[in-house]
Amino acid sequence: MKERWKSVFGMTGRKTQEKENMPVVELISVGTELLLGDIVNTNAAYLSRQCAALGLSCFYQSVVGDNAQRLRAVLAQALERSDIVILSGGLGPTADDLTKETAAALMGMPLVMDEHSLERIVHIFESRGLEMTENNKKQALVPQGALVLDNENGTAPGLIMCRDKKTVVLLPGPPGELCPMFEKSVRPYLERQGAGILYSRTVKICGMGESKVASMVQELIEGQSNPTVAPYAKIGEVHLRVTARARDKAEAAGMAAPVVEALVEKFGDRVYTTDPDVTLEEAVTGLLKENGWKLSTAESCTGGMLGARMTAVAGVSEVYKGGFITYSNKAKRKFLGVKKETLQRFGAVSQETALEMAQGAADTAKTEVAVSITGIAGPGGGTAEKPVGLVYIGCSVQKHVTVREYRFDGNRSIVRESAVSAALTLVRQCMLEWLAAQKEEAHQ
Amino acid sequence: MKERWKSVFGMTGRKTQEKENMPVVELISVGTELLLGDIVNTNAAYLSRQCAALGLSCFYQSVVGDNAQRLRAVLAQALERSDIVILSGGLGPTADDLTKETAAALMGMPLVMDEHSLERIVHIFESRGLEMTENNKKQALVPQGALVLDNENGTAPGLIMCRDKKTVVLLPGPPGELCPMFEKSVRPYLERQGAGILYSRTVKICGMGESKVASMVQELIEGQSNPTVAPYAKIGEVHLRVTARARDKAEAAGMAAPVVEALVEKFGDRVYTTDPDVTLEEAVTGLLKENGWKLSTAESCTGGMLGARMTAVAGVSEVYKGGFITYSNKAKRKFLGVKKETLQRFGAVSQETALEMAQGAADTAKTEVAVSITGIAGPGGGTAEKPVGLVYIGCSVQKHVTVREYRFDGNRSIVRESAVSAALTLVRQCMLEWLAAQKEEAHQ
């Protein structure tokens, strides 16, 4: 197997493109509200994703407040170690907005009034029927020689300044202004600076822990250069992202393909998709649709989370009939027909109850597939025999019922989320097994 | 009213304390997935908020990838300009996790095996029935002399290292591990470092939009210095955070109290709590408990999200009996007894269906209180007459049913979350109204 990996890798591996010609980008987010944690820095995630897609490497991101001295120090350092610095925020009309002033001073470009921007701002205030104050004019001041980017969703124009092979891009902080401006003006500009693109595919694996997956692909990860393989752990899932860097998309896709194929072969049925946009619940929905089956759910400790996750899929109504939240023993009996003796003898959290819950859901809702969850999510309710984290999941496919026991670690919320992921994994696995068994029978 | 606000404010206002003796904290988030924009840096927002609440100033935040050289440079700089550096991420078992190694080397503290942590990790693997690999042991190595923080939700322990009046805190990257560890171990540690504290209370308001709330407290927000009043909008809720800075908790609490009281008086019944830790679903749970009532739910477009939110409350089993996810018309008829004619004549998304769903849930589950949701979450399924975002919510309290129509903006996920919040608000309001009416009757 080792050999196989090496050959796959050798086949597609090529030296990482010389980075000397690739500009390195760095992000600086300006705003005291970020330092106080009042807002989450979604701009940084957006800009990072955009730069990665353009094949630009980004090694550092910083957040700094509305303070001229500290902002100047951070920007000066960024210009030393990176080629392109994208700043966001601090372009507003108030006195504490000083990103533009600080950047212009550092780049040695004096601020001058830009008549075009001033006209735009005057027009915005007029059309809103608002009075324009003196400090709004400040927003029309631009560094001499800078490229001015019109803001179609606000008053502050964006700016691109170049000097001594260094580029500084200034963008307004509100995402509703930043994103459209990036897409319309900054991306085309950066595309002309970049050399090549990054292309990614994701192999999504369910029902296997991160370390197990990582140890199975360790050699591939360690020897990586281009394409690279990187694992990302989610609750109940591990995603392996294969990323190739090349001159264009077709070349990169060609480089990534054999690695993706090899991973799919290695992990077999555990791979539920290689499409980065497909979720586990969508994979389950797809499998149900293919077979013309309907699904119902019966949840105790997860209290509706599995139903909520299934119904997050648009168009799931074709396959998801409904579900039961049986949080009390009475509801388990009344809604699902779980027997009183079962609950008394084995308890609500038991293999037997999970089995009757799945059967009850399938019978009551009249569905080919049903899945049940019963467990102890904590923090209370655990005993030595039945500790917090103990969960039973039942799955009925065409009257054939499987029940499995799980022991999850973590707080109430993690136990519940883990149970939902495990239920989706189990229902997918049971459907695949039932289909495989049918196929085998037909062959005999 | 203006006068009243001013007097409340003047009474409690005092100059912000000198910050000279307060340690300065800096955050470093480690992870290539942040630089690539694969995940949003919610940890930084969380840690910033926590540090601000402790009265610690934070002037810089950085993000750096899993690269020893660059991480070392960023950490060295942070230790020069700040007193406490909190790093998150890069504590995993794989070869590219090197935060601990880099920080320990920089602090001059060699790594040694921590038997207690090793035992914990071995136990976790055993209890999960998983095989432990050699690289998992790496997580039990700790810098000699460091304070080891048990991780109750994962394998990587947290660490606090002190040397030459500088403190380095290492936390695991997954928020489900980082947040509980911060609350249990790091916050108490940092509290002892701070000089003076920030004390906050939160007035939580449901069923009123952000601009309406903001306009009602505008004067208070504008004139603020200590205590401050800041609005935070959540889906279906607005939180007003009142924060006082003082030498100790008692003094700060005394400063915040009259402002909180004034806000409660102003917003009346819309205020569901002034405890920052109490959620809307907990407030509903409390009201049910007080009256000895049971609740059931009937959900169509939210597919279990309301049940999931109710059952996120530990101990809710005392009041929440269960629910029905009736995603199809058949389920609405079969599980809840909604009439065929009602569905045919008025449609699944109608006042009449919402009413019969609430009645059906109350009757079938035999609960004093029941709430139903039916709507069009999108992206498909909307018409001119019944557009995406149209939702009907029904609530039955002691057989008395109220149905209300809502029109929510936003994508599928936002419409669904808005509907759940609105349902919790409505069920709370209907219970309060029923109780008030009973009281009035008794008086007559």
Question: Can you put this structure into words, describing what you see?
Answer:
The structure is a homodimer of 444-residue chains. In chain A, the strands form 4 sheets. Chain A has a 6-stranded mixed β-sheet, with helices on both faces. In chain A, strands 14-13-15-16-17 form a 5-stranded mixed β-sheet, sandwiched between helices. Chain A folds into 3 domains: 2-12 and 196-273, Alpha-Beta Plaits (2-Layer Sandwich), CATH 3.30.70.2860; 22-193, 3-Layer(aba) Sandwich (Molybdenum Cofactor Biosythetic Enzyme, Chain A), CATH 3.40.980.10; 280-437, CinA-like (Maf protein, Alpha-Beta Complex), CATH 3.90.950.20. In chain A, a hairpin with an 8-residue loop joins β6 and β7 (158-163). With 444 residues, the first copy, chain A, is an alpha/beta fold. In chain A, α1 (2-12) runs antiparallel to α11 (249-267) and α3 (42-53) runs parallel beside α8. The first copy, chain A, has helices at residues 2-12, 32-35, 42-53, 68-81, 99-107, 115-127, 134-137, 175-193, 210-216, 218-222, 249-267, 280-291, 305-310, 329-336, 340-346, 351-365, 412-443; strands at residues 24-30, 57-64, 84-88, 111-113, 141-143, 147-149, 158-163, 166-171, 197-206, 228-234, 237-246, 271-273, 295-299, 320-326, 369-375, 390-397, 400-407. At the A-B interface, α3, β2, α9, α10 and β10 of A face α2, α3, β2, α13 and β14 of B. β2 (57-64) of chain A pairs antiparallel with β2 of chain B, so a sheet runs across the interface.
